[in-house]
Specification:
By secondary structure, this protein is of the alpha+beta class. The protein is about 20% helix and about 25% strand.
């Protein structure tokens, strides 16, 4: 699944790309689960856990693998676990999992940020696996990243909250980054310290993606001493 070149890219640039990595069956699990969640009668508010959703323009279908055994088998499975362990250099814990759906012909982009900028307290960096369910292109809102070495100087930068677009912003500069276009079933792996964004979906079809995140230890909320989201050790 992962080569030394992938590991080197991850360490030196903060991300790596595994194109068309998922099998047809694995991709079908993600497609089926995402579509089932979209069809539910209960409105998730577009992502009310962080209040960063924007209705049908930008929806976050979160933390539901326990309701879907096939999805649980994927996100907690041996193959994804091996990838996470290789990139983290330690046994992984599932931290967060969610589908991110951008509606057609919307302006729902997502600002430059580090995933760690949304945690709210000190923690060890974690791994994000952004998986394309549909082909990801600049036209439908693929993920651009700002390459950065994950050396000892890498850190979380201050983020401001944009109340209009309902998101945290960690970079306002002119660097366009590297837009990662990829076919369905590809994995864009990046550190929670890696700055990234996504553009608007200007096509006439929804853009579906799945994001699963893994930590090297349970990420505990200091106010409660409880896991912020999940803290499931992979088999």
């Amino acid at each position: 699944m992962i080569t030394e070149a992938h590991l080197q890219d991850y360490r030196s640039q903060g991300f790596c790309v595994l194109e068309s990595e998922l099998s047809r069956d694995e991709l079908q699990v993600l497609e089926n689960t995402c579509d089932a969640l979209l069809a539910e009668d209960v409105d998730d508010g577009g992502g009310r856990v962080h209040d960063i959703g924007r209705g049908q323009d930008r929806r976050f279908l979160r933390l539901r693998h326990e309701s879907y055994p096939e999805l649980a088998g994927f996100v907690l499975g041996e193959r994804i676990g091996a990838l996470a362990k290789a990139l983290l250099g330690a046994e992984p814990y599932l931290f967060v999992e969610q589908f991110v759906v951008k509606g057609p012909k919307t302006g729902a982009n997502f600002a430059w940020h580090q995933d760690s900028g949304y945690v709210g307290f000190e923690h060890l960096p974690y791994l994000s696996l952004w998986i394309s369910i549909d082909a990801a292109t600049e036209a439908n809102g693929c993920v651009p990243v700002l390459p950065r070495s994950l050396d000892g100087s890498a850190r979380v930068v201050p983020h401001r909250f944009d109340p209009v677009n309902k998101e945290r912003v960690g970079y306002d500069g002119d660097d366009p980054g590297i837009a990662v276009e990829c076919p369905p079933g590809s994995i864009v792996a990046f550190s929670s310290l890696t700055m990234h964004r996504s553009g608007p979906n200007t096509t006439d079809r929804a853009r579906r993606a799945y994001l699963c995140q893994y930590s090297v230890e349970p990420i505990l909320d200091p106010d409660t001493s409880e896991p912020k989201h999940f803290a499931k050790r992979l088999a």
